[in-house]
Amino acid sequence: MRPEDLLRPSPRGLYCPVGDFYIDPTRAVPRALITHAHSDHARPGHGEVLATRETLDLMALRMGPSHAGATQAIGYGESLDIGGVRVTAHPAGHVLGSAQFALTWHGCSIVASGDYKDAYDPTCTPFVPVRCDVFISEATFGLPVFRHPLAADETAKLLNSLQVFPERAHLVGAYSLGKAQRVMALLRAAGYDAPIYVHGALAAISAYYAERGIALGEIRPAADAPKAAFAGAVVIAPPAAITDLWSRRFPDPVTAFASGWMRVRARARQRGVELPLVISDHADWDGLIAATRATGCTELWVTHGAEDALVHWAGAAGLGARPLHMVGYGDEDAEAPPEPASEAPAVPPEDAA
Length: 353
Ligand SMILES: [Zn+2]
Prior knowledge:
Layout: E1 8-10, E2 13-16, E3 21-23, E4 31-33, E5 46-51, H1 53-63, E6 68-73, E7 79-82, E8 85-91, E9 99-105, E10 108-112, E11 134-139, H2 151-164, E12 170-173, H3 179-189, E13 196-198, H4 200-211, E14 219-221, E15 234-237, E16 254-258, H5 265-270, E17 275-277, H6 285-295, E18 299-305, H7 307-316, E19 320-323
Parallel strand pairs: 3-4, 4-5, 5-6, 10-11, 11-18, 12-15, 12-16, 13-14, 13-15, 16-17, 18-19
Antiparallel strand pairs: 1-2, 2-3, 7-8, 8-9, 9-10
The structure holds zinc ion.
Zinc ion is lined by residues 36, 38, 41, 94, 115, 352-353.
């Protein structure tokens, strides 16, 4: 038996012919397992969706309650039998509710990790390596040049800037699901206790995080605040909003952006970012390698991102390795469509942090 008999790439995403289901399909399918609620992985229109409670809630929040015909929640460590395939959910450490799915059938085990990171994140359950024969990994930051610094050190840069420029608003671009709440939690963990102002697109998701027990402190809608309130304040908004009309209400802001791509100075410059914060929800090069090794896999499949370098590393390390060239999965910014910058209460339909 080959692993491809259990799971294989298809034009709609990873497909399990034995259980007749897809993982993070890019088009509507009868049965989908969804690793997390970012819009490049969680799409509307599926017949049945299996995901963690948090992912299902976030999907409903973003796409409306009727995004799927039926939903079923699975907790971390829980297993289900789907057409003879044993499916187990494990934490991926990417955003709240993010899961890896381990598939076992006839002694063959494959782990589809979705997006993941092994770095500290107070807003979600930490990544757990799962033993398997085949590990399926993304490679958003799959080049040796990508080594993310400690998020706490990047947070300290923001706090330091607030001290240096106490009269300027600090406008932080952060993707609305996951990154924005992580920045808030990192600020709180560093002892910052002033109210944090948010763009309307972040309000509902942040409220949901708080409801699930993630301490984000006092959050205020930026739309309701007088201009004077923004002096020396932190304002968090979707990346697109920090450079558009919306940002003009803030006098002389310090523009920051929290993304793994901020490691690339040219990207920060292109975006007019004064204060780049290298905070990523994806594993860096060392993280990808450590995670792969920790699974004990004999084969690595790479879904998207900088596939070649990781596949090359795996080959040199004695693993079977193949790039899957899967399309439809974005990254933290350039390849993902920009988020709408309006203050509409509707949650933006896309991001990938
Ligand atoms: Zn993601």
